[in-house]
Acyl-CoA dehydrogenase
Amino acid sequence: MTAGNPLLSDRDVAFQLYEVHDAAALLRLPAFADHDRDTFDLFLANARSLARDVLYPAYRPMDEAAPSFTGGRIHVHPRMRSIWPRLCELGVITASRPLDVGGQQLPRTIASMAEAYLMAANLGAYCYAGLTAGAAHLIEAFGSDDLKDRYMRRMYAGEWTGTMALTEPQAGSSLGDIRTRAVLRDDGTYAIEGGKIFISGGDHDIADNIVHLTLARIDGAPAGIKGISLFAIPRLYPGEGGLVDNDVSTAGMIHKIGWRGLPSLVINFGERGGCRGELVGIPGHGLSYMFQMMNEARLMVGLNGVATAAVAYHESLAYARERRQGRAAGRRDPHGPAVPIIEHADVRRMLLRQKAIVEGGLSLLLATARLADVAHHGDDEDERRRSALLLDLLTPIAKSFAAERGYDSNALALQIHGGYGYSSEYLPEAWLRDQKLNSIHEGTTTIHGLDLLGRRALAPGALQALGREILQTCSQAQAAGVELADVVAMQEAAGAAVALIAELAGRHSADPERMLRHSHDVLDIFMTVTVAWQWLRQATAARRALSQGPSSPADNAFYLGKLQAAQYWLRTELPRVAPLVRLCRDEEDSYANTRPEWF
Amino acid sequence: MTAGNPLLSDRDVAFQLYEVHDAAALLRLPAFADHDRDTFDLFLANARSLARDVLYPAYRPMDEAAPSFTGGRIHVHPRMRSIWPRLCELGVITASRPLDVGGQQLPRTIASMAEAYLMAANLGAYCYAGLTAGAAHLIEAFGSDDLKDRYMRRMYAGEWTGTMALTEPQAGSSLGDIRTRAVLRDDGTYAIEGGKIFISGGDHDIADNIVHLTLARIDGAPAGIKGISLFAIPRLYPGEGGLVDNDVSTAGMIHKIGWRGLPSLVINFGERGGCRGELVGIPGHGLSYMFQMMNEARLMVGLNGVATAAVAYHESLAYARERRQGRAAGRRDPHGPAVPIIEHADVRRMLLRQKAIVEGGLSLLLATARLADVAHHGDDEDERRRSALLLDLLTPIAKSFAAERGYDSNALALQIHGGYGYSSEYLPEAWLRDQKLNSIHEGTTTIHGLDLLGRRALAPGALQALGREILQTCSQAQAAGVELADVVAMQEAAGAAVALIAELAGRHSADPERMLRHSHDVLDIFMTVTVAWQWLRQATAARRALSQGPSSPADNAFYLGKLQAAQYWLRTELPRVAPLVRLCRDEEDSYANTRPEWF
């Protein structure tokens, strides 16, 4: 563990915020009128310090000693008891919430960068805050004033924490099959009975109460997803005389292979018939409410995938600069000194690939954060609608890119450490374990492929909006002096990707199974293309800066590094798109036609 | 953990041995004259039983309780004390060694399949045998009769075990930099002083003695690889009066993230000035001796990569058949029953990809084993030479394919298990950890890329021999009725791969650094092409069998599955080759030109 690991590059965060994604322009929107670049940077600086000084040093101890489950309760790592108030004090739970609910009303663009530092430092520790924010936001968006008063405010203040309780053992990803029951009681609350699994932060000993935002089926509701409602179920019920036991119990702890600071639990409601839940919003709308939250959670997972790849990238970069081994190619004098392994071209390949994934992924996640800001707070309705459409389209892509390519990146960080990387004396293996969850939770990569091709890419105007954005970037890139061949490659790949969807949808409008056959490859195509787009944006900004004359040798090196990483992605990854498009158009049918008994 | 996990498919092993790789033809060679198909099958059956009944049930306990290091000694899992004699009794240490050293003189083709079952069942447990075999084989090949008598025979009998002691902390992969010293003593032995790291099985409590086959530098020897000699260094020295302490100590245990049944140690020789080593062969030849062993060890690693992917594939296949979730695409009736997840096309994609990697990799490893048999025991000198050349060429490819694509395959097995796969209650995460080492030990993937492009592919006649083999397969495939488009794709990809090497070598004969720039991509190209070749061979055999009318519905299903997996690889993976070839020919220079300070 390198004490000086920066988690993320500060220079890169500043570049992406202000030179690529024009965060300063957000200050012109009325919602952010109270802010200026200083308040943005102050929040980022505070988050960075907390991440580096408090969360990161606690990461290894929390990974080594997972929470314990004794006496029916979960006891988390003792360090969390001092970390939790610091996270609340930073205001990360409500950074982007409105002033009137106690938030700081910062753009998601800024808040998400702060979160990225905290995630890179200590994913498990941060996530108590992230989960609480998501759960409280559901109440803010859909709950009654009474629920906001009694639940949301305490959660935003960090007095209580929150969870999302969706998954049931028998249903898995198929949320329409959940069975947790809700029966209306005389007092207007619901008697809840059922069990949930994989509830992150479902119990702990760092705050007074836990509110589970839970999907359940009101007795008599229709089968399938239309019969599902959303409930707030507190561990301790806030009654007249204070908090009383609400028959919520921890039935087991999953032995996760990563995220070991955060317990993942089996939670039972109403084992003794005494569990009360409060309906959030309208009956039967549970899944649509939850999907709004899930879209935010997916971007949070994407960000955390990038952050987890980032911290490992920086660790392997430092290692490659320090570790000496072998001689430069062609210089085989055995008496000469060994060189740092960064001098070996293939080690630089592994580093540049990580850089391309980390900084390309960060840019894609920043793009989604900025779209969310404009979708919610833009001053033009068309722009708001267009931003929402693009955000919807990019969400499964950004989440899956960070999960899948982030995992590749984390594996390279381990590989660069050689035999040492294979030991738990070094941290890359821990980050590799952490990263693996991201292709599973908040929708598996399979689900996101189906969701992208079967729904989001078909939304009227969505692909056209993306196509226009990419073409605009191409024009700007050309004007800034980016090599024409790279600009043309970008245009062609984006055009092929957009045309592919239209072709598949046209061909198989009556046969969704056939239409969706290559959903995984379509997702891969869009991951590769959208990150290429982000690299072209970064290359454009770097070219501009270089043509104006960078202010220091370090700045010069920074921009040259950007151009190399952009080149890597555009020339090494983007060419993967054409054969994938052919595969989809040809409807290659090997797995589609393989019967279960043929394996 | 599925009790019925077959580890490898018996049907597939029989198919590959007798329908694809014609193991029966080996019986015509004088070296194997004492065998017949019954003795082959009996050995396989015994290995299979031991693997399933003894090694596999011990896998999880051994993964959960790694060896302990107390009182200066390593104590391995108690189950190893009963497993070790069973492995010796099976004769796996000497299965392919000659009768005159106590072996069974079986072809590697047969022995390696037996090893694959044992590795799939319990990698760590098997490897005590594999390491002992490798170390003893070094003495058999290069040691004096005296050394054979005093060391090799006891090792082959399983009374003592063996290790390979190469790596030193400061040198890593750069073996020319090792510093362990050897000084000739009056009695003809050498006083040894130095430290080694990552010594697998370097200490344990399952046999009486351990012999470390160690690279060291005789005082006064030249710097670099030419000054390195090979020594046998026993933990207890076999003197006149029996075994006496030989000043070999365990200085530390690496906390590996996998292979937890087998300790990886820091071993010090001669801390008290009392360590004696015995020279093996001629001074200064240590590295060339070791490379012969390492080539065998690399194929062992390849086989274990395939085996580790295989056991996980079978686990995820059983899970996908049992686990019910969701509805078939297009049938969204929420009242209908949930379907086994194998009904979902993307789950079948993940299974078929695993099958293609596992059975394609097994075929490639079997091809190398058969080449080794013919190279050593063939009755025609030209054929022996040609086989040795091909074996040399395929070794880094087969090892790296199993390590890299095997890791992808293991990740898919975890993914199919969803959230459960992310917990240590299920085994896929353990196999994923095990697999990760294979891209690091016995040469990192980087090293194998450099070795392939910089040396093996340039050996006169090597690529031509591979090209001829592939063309022959193409002719047979066409005759058997394999689709012409697939045969043509194979020919084109193989042709492009072979031509690429000639072009790079011609262009940059004076600039090895430039020539080797895309060594990683070249390795990827050859991995993809050679496994496509193996799938074409399997498709050919399956087509033949289907045209003759399979003997049962199960057989019919088996052959149809082979055709689907072959189609998957030839149409989904093989098209990756063309853009990779372009990348290499264009000499894409992003990472080559990135300076260390630009990251």
